[in-house]
Amino acid sequence: MCHESKTSKKNQLSTKQDVNKPYELAIKYAKYYGGKVEVVPRVPITSLNDFGVWYTPGVAQVSRDIHKDRDLSFQYTNRWNTIAVLTNGTRVLGLGNVGPEASAPVMEGKSLIFKYLGGVDAFALPINVMDKAQFVEVAKVLEPALGGINLEDIRQPDCFYILERCRKEMNIPVWHDDQQGTAGATVAGLVNALKVVGKKIGDVSIVFFGCGAANISNARLAITAGADPKKMCMVDSKGVLHPDREDMDRMAMENPWKYEFALKTNAERRKGGLADALKGADVVIAASTPGPGVIKPDWIRGMNDDSIVFAEANPVPEIWPWEAKEAGAKVVATGRSDFPNQVNNSLVFPSVFRGVLDIQAKTITDEMAVTASYELAKFAEERGLSEEHIVPTMEDWEVYPRVATAVAMKAMEQGITRKKMSRDELMHQATTMISHARKQIETLMKNGIIPPFPE
Amino acid sequence: MLDRLKVRDANAGDLPVLVDHTLRMLKLNAEFDPLLKPSDEVEEEAFGYVREGLADGRGVVLVAEFDGNVAGIPHARIVYSRSYAPRLLGHVDKFYVVPGFRRKEVGSVLLSRVEEELRRKALR
């Protein structure tokens, strides 16, 4: 990056007015529109007589049939395309534990993205349940109404417990986007970044900086994709994880997921902080605290040649991309749309759910998540890989049906679906559903039913 | 891996690692029961306790090592019973297996070895 563009980027980011603009608009629009999603019928209503079919008495026959075969609920009702965005608001964005009511606008925003990018009917469902075991019970009693559940913004380590139990005990896909969505996008980026620098995933040493939901899941999915845990190093606020660490016993009690990584990673038994972990490393994947300055350029200089830096903290990455590049990084990715290589879970969750809903899958396995990563990576590769293009962008809308189809095919291969469809049928279905959602929104806007932005 | 596990009597040179692992064990107990909160003087107390154990002829303090790394430290002693007919009782005071060596039967090996040592000392 040349000096001029660096300067302009810095200036752009330091303009207070620009930084605050989205907050001002969000409040203004929230007041004006009164929420972001609503229910729209799927069936014609020509007169009130139609309700004799859509509702009683006609609907009774639909109920009788579903009573005989519960899976018909996926065929005769909108269950097949309905999910809940389920949260207790205990870790919302970077805001922390703001509670269920305050999490609602975020969940509505998620529902909107689900609809627009995936054609999925997602209901924002913030619940007042703080106990993790009780949360699982609530998720389970909601199952008959839903084709899937997207868990969102739940504090760690509760989120690991909830996801693990829901996946095990429920017969619909349950996904925690802060873990799996982020990981799906990260691994897609990692696969292509490694192609750019000509290294193999099984050979490289990877440092994960930050041991929250995102990076625990990033590490898990990277292993599913072939990374060697012995060559991995995880670093939290207290330093490098290793089995001799003083807080291992507490970790085993409080966060067994992190504890497992402390045991199985870092075969070299490195100790110390991030700087020590980064010495000679090929890749760093940071999902820690907002920067800049959290990762020092000097530490990047200490990495191997052609290093790969993923600085995923929002709103400001742990290190500015140009700083990382100047310090020797070959490929840099962040979570931001205004820099190249945005590692963005919005590339993953709409299409994963599109796929699992179309094929009526009963769960989402790690293999399905990796399949989503590979398809994303393949899509970007087809359009030409470079240091500044390792993942598709949200504008590449063709990527969504592609990923949906790949995920659904994988689910069929794993024998965990209620339906069987061909690749062509899946592609057609996903494309139709996504373009249908877009057309619906366009039509509503064109007819003034969705009014334009207020002045 | 058990064939590479070496169990030996602790000696004065092990004092720092014994104190460190005893402290870890005491803190671990607090995770199970908040009433077992380590005292403010716990470090000095652990040091004194371990030193006494090493000097006690009725004590069994062992160190399990795997490739030079400490895998566990059982600490037991023989006590005289005022109530029961078998007057000599083996009492395991502290038993700590390092996290990386758990679920690999290291604890079983150590407990068997502690029993053997206690019996041997009791007979003597």
Q: Helical residue percent of chain A? A: 40-55%
Query: Can you count the helices of chain A?
Result: 19
> N-to-C SSE series of chain B?
EHHEEEH
How large is the radius of gyration of chain A? 23 Å
- CATH topology label of the domain at 182-334 in chain A: Rossmann fold
Tell me the quaternary state.
heterodimer
Poorly predicted sequence stretches spanning 5 or more consecutive residues of chain A: 1-14
> Under the CATH scheme, which architecture of the domain at 182-334 in chain A would be assigned?
3-Layer(aba) Sandwich
Largest sheet of chain B: 4 strands, antiparallel
What's the structural domain tally of chain B?
1
CATH homology superfamily name of the domain at 182-334 in chain A:
NAD(P)-binding Rossmann-like Domain
In short:
The complex is a heterodimer of chains A (455) and B (124). Chain A is an alpha/beta fold and 455 residues long. Chain A has helices at 3-14, 16-33, 51-54, 59-68, 73-76, 99-118, 132-142, 158-169, 177-197, 213-224, 248-254, 256-264, 274-278, 297-301, 321-326, 349-358, 366-382, 399-413, 423-446, and strands at residues 82-87, 121-126, 148-151, 174-176, 206-209, 232-236, 239-240, 283-286, 307-311, 329-334.
What does this structure look like?
The complex is a heterodimer of chains A (455) and B (124). Chain A has helices at 3-14, 16-33, 51-54, 59-68, 73-76, 99-118, 132-142, 158-169, 177-197, 213-224, 248-254, 256-264, 274-278, 297-301, 321-326, 349-358, 366-382, 399-413, 423-446, and strands spanning 82-87, 121-126, 148-151, 174-176, 206-209, 232-236, 239-240, 283-286, 307-311, 329-334. In chain A, helix 9 packs across helix 17 (366-382), helix 16 packs across helix 18 (399-413) and helix 17 packs antiparallel against helix 18 (399-413). Chain A is α/β, with parallel strands linked by helices and 455 residues long. Mean pLDDT of chain A is 94; it is low at 1-14. Chain A has a domain at 182-334: 3-Layer(aba) Sandwich (Rossmann fold). Chain B has 124 residues and is α+β, with helices and mostly antiparallel strands. Chain B contains three helices and four strands. Chain B has a four-stranded antiparallel β-sheet with strand order 1-2-3-4, sandwiched between helices. In chain B, strand 2 and strand 3 (69-80) form a beta hairpin. The longest helix of chain B is centred in the first third of the chain and has 18 residues, at 15-32. Chain B is globular, with a radius of gyration of 15 Å. The relative contact order of chain B is 0.19. The chains are: A alpha/beta (455), B alpha+beta (124).
